[in-house]
Amino acid sequence: METIDRNVFNLPDPAITATLEKQIVKRVGSGVFEVDAADVYYRNLNQVVRNLVDGGAKKIVLRNVAGQRYIATNMEGQVEIEIHGTPGNDLGSFMNGSTITVFGNAQDGCGNTMNDGKIVVHGHAGDILGMSMRGGEIYIRDDVGYRVAIHMKEYMEKIPVLVIGGTSQDFFGEYMAGGIVILLGLTLGKGEKHRARFIGTGMHGGVIFLRGSVEEYQLGKEVGIREPDENDRAKLERYIKEYARLFDKNADEIFAGQFSKLLPVSKRPYGKLYAY
After folding, report:
1. Which pLDDT tens digit goes with each residue over 227-251?
2. What sign for the dihedral angle of Cα 37, 18, 29, 114?
3. Whole-prediction pTM value?
């Protein structure tokens, strides 16, 4: 068999990874490991994490993370990953069942096409959070960037949930096809309104619950506003309680706020553009 030149494909070198593991990995308990990610190239860091998971790790604590991307991409199983620092783009993308907790901010693409599991961020998150997310739950303590929840989707019992404690930039919920998105506005001042524009542009499935004030001109033309009913408020209560538990907030105070329910007015908002 022809030997693959790993440098051609820019893949992690097994020898480098093995040496790194000895230098940066510390066992701190049964199935629990700490990894010092300072100055570690993202591909090598991800390979070290993968090796630990394949070896049976139940919890991995990553310290000194500074922009390394693709952490826990395509991760399977019930492993818990705790991140101290700022992970790079596409954290937890294609993830399928693991739990990630970030003590810091997250960059763009967090939860991209996530299938299952849970991501908790004790800070802000960047653009396209939850892009094409199709399962699991994401909780962000503070604000988020542009095009959050773009093209979220659901299928039968698989319903993704995204809860954001603060506010969002423009194109929130763009092209949503399914899922539950909750925007709590807790970082807004008294009487301050959400400033995002084009909310729900192209939305054709799912639901957005928005706490606080928003004007109709801020919404995409594909979106209508309703009052949450009893079933809606039961869903809100469930996820608000979990948000409050995760971030040490008062669930009753949050739930007492004014909520709007944003729904698509059509299942095929652009059907006439592409079909006759």
Report:
1. 999 999 999 999 999 999 999 999 9
2. positive
3. 0.92
- Distance between CA atoms of residues 192 and 166, nearest Å: 12
Tell me which residue of 250, 188, 190, 263 sits closest to 224, measured CA to CA: 263
Task: Please give the Cα distance from 140 to 80 (Å, whole number).
Answer: 17
Residue 49 is which amino acid? Answer: V
Query: What strands lie across the sheet with 25-29, from one edge to the other?
Result: 25-29, 32-36, 59-66, 80-86, 96-103, 116-121, 137-140, 161-164, 177-183, 205-211, 259-264, 223-226
pLDDT above 70 for 2: no
| Cα-Cα-Cα-Cα dihedral sign, residues 207, 213, 218, 222 | positive
Using DSSP's 3-state secondary structure scheme, residue 145 falls into coil
Q: Closest Cα to residue 235, out of 198, 209, 266, 204?
A: 209
Helix or strand or coil: residue 141?
coil
Tens-digit pLDDT profile for residues 82-117 = 999 999 999 999 999 999 999 999 999 999 999 999
Q: How far apart are CA 20 and CA 13, in angstroms?
A: 10
Q: Residue 26: which of 35, 37, 18, 38 has the closest Cα?
A: 35
- Cβ atoms of 160 and 136 within 8 Å: the answer is yes
Radius of gyration (C-alpha) of the chain in whole angstroms: 20
Enumerate residues 6+ apart whose C-beta is below 8 A from 43.
Answer: 10, 11, 12
Quick one: CA dihedral 118, 162, 151, 47, positive or negative? negative
Helix, strand, coil fractions of the chain, as percent rounded to 5: 20, 30, 50
